[in-house]
Amino acid sequence: MEESDIRLLLDTSSRLIDEVSFDFRRYLCPQIEWNDRLICIKGPKGCGKTTLILQHIKETFGAGDDRAVYLSLDHIWFASHDVLDAVEWLYAHGCTHLFLDEVHHAEHWARLVKTIHDSYPKLNLVFSGSSVLQLTAARADLSRRQAVYNLEGLSFREFLEFEEGVKFSPVSIEDVVSRHRVMALEMVRRRKILPLFEEYLKRGYYPFGKEAKSQFGQRLVSVVGTVLDVDFPKVVDVSAATVRKTKKMLMILASSCPQTPNMSELYAELETDRNAGIKMFDVLEKAELVVSEPIKGKNAKLKRLGVAEKLFLGDTNLMYALMSNPDIGAVRETFFANQLRAAGLDFAIPPDGDFKVMNRWLFEIGGRGKGFSQIKNLPDSYVVNDGVELGIGNKIPLWLFGFLY
Fold first, then answer.
1. φ, ψ for residue 126, nearest 5 deg
2. What ranges do the domains of the chain cover?
3. Reduced to 3 states, what is the DSSP secondary structure of residue 356?
4. Can you tell me the distance from the alpha carbon of 220 to that of 216, in angstroms, rounded to the nearest whole number?
5. Whether residue 372 has pLDDT greater than 70
6. How many CB atoms lie within 10 A of CB 182?
7. In sequence order, what are the beta bridge partners of 77?
8. In terms of Cα–Cα distance, which of 145, 147, 149, 208 is closest to 29?
9. pLDDT value of position 307
């Protein structure tokens, strides 16, 4: 391969690195151990993986430094050129850090990543893709080699910075329960929080919501369609009929979350058997469209039988995109669960209250008038109220849990 053959890729890499902005940076960047030899960054389409990678390259190497090269494998160049030929040329000409974006567009991409990693022991490789389903399915093949990072959607804290330019630092769960009133007072002095929180619930989790406000719901539904129509068949050999049934399952679950439907009745409605139904549900979970949480005290072996877990959609934006009028109670619980998961906080569904977090704090979620009747006299118990700017005592505003990451 001659330099003239690969010049388009090098010029594209330099231009993208040079033009990336540092106006807004995602929470994950400082958490990544960039010196690891093989790094996987996964996350839903449009959550900011490409920008995060380009910012790191610009900050660490600068634009025009051919030691670090960014390649997106959905580039038309790869329609007539081989990825390994490009890697060989780059390595021979001094590349030490290679960043492969949209890696799932390459045929047999997991084998490709393994080959590059094994064949170039002095090359640091970072790869990413917007097909969470495909990257998750191949994780076992690369598990001994790769460090995996999941870039979540925007927290409410990040949404305020991304949309309004107002910067706040993340807070700990310990500070939320002990200092929530002081922190909330400082925040509401700078912005009217509640209208922005309502907007965040509807379109704030995905960064592309900023540029596609009027078409956001349609665009998000299109992303879901791509996951099930394109990614699903690439991971599992399934028929078009199974894909349609999986979409129907998603819509049925969306209308019932966070309550778990009778799974036997669900399988009958889908005209499928239990084994096929479990596989479809497993795909929805791995794609992070549906999330199940264990109910404390239930037998873990009963998982997915409809009696041992509570189901949530992946985020509140999905709820508004898939349903015209989602239940506000379900929206509140979905937001709370989503932000806890993204912040890496373990929780379970307790017999009393809505969430037991880190096996310590008990939370009951509700509207502004929600009280302690359901968790009365229980230790470390708190009511989380929606629709209020400030809390008092053991009553905490719901929106503040959007500052955990």
1. -115, 130
2. 3-150, 173-403
3. strand
4. 6
5. yes
6. 9
7. none
8. 149
9. 44
Per DSSP, the residues of 72-99 read ETTSGGGGSS-HHHHHHHHHHTT--EEE
pLDDT in tens, 65-105: 999 999 999 999 999 999 999 999 999 999 999 999 999 99
Q: What is 7-39 written as a DSSP string? A: HHHHHHHHHHHHH---SS--TTGGGS-TTSSEE
> pTM for the complete prediction?
0.90
Structure tokens at 105: 């567009």
Instruction: Evaluate whether 243 touches 280 at the Cβ level (below 8 Å).
Output: no
Length of the chain: 405
- At 237-271, the pLDDT tens digits run 999 999 999 999 999 999 988 887 788 899 999 99
Q: With 0-12 CB in 10 A as exposed, 13-18 as middle and 19+ as buried, what is 145?
A: middle
- Cβ–Cβ < 8 Å for 150, 42: yes
- Spatial CB neighbours of 45, under 8 Å, sequence gap ≥ 6: 130, 223, 226
CATH of domain 3-150: 3.40.50.300
Alpha helices in 287-351 (DSSP H): 316-322, 328-342
Give the whole-angstrom CA distance, residue 317 versus residue 296: 27
- Output the six-digit token pair for 77: 């160049």
CA 83 to chain centre: 28
pLDDT at 269: 95
Kindly tell me the sign of the dihedral angle through the C-alpha atoms of 188, 190, 195, 200: negative
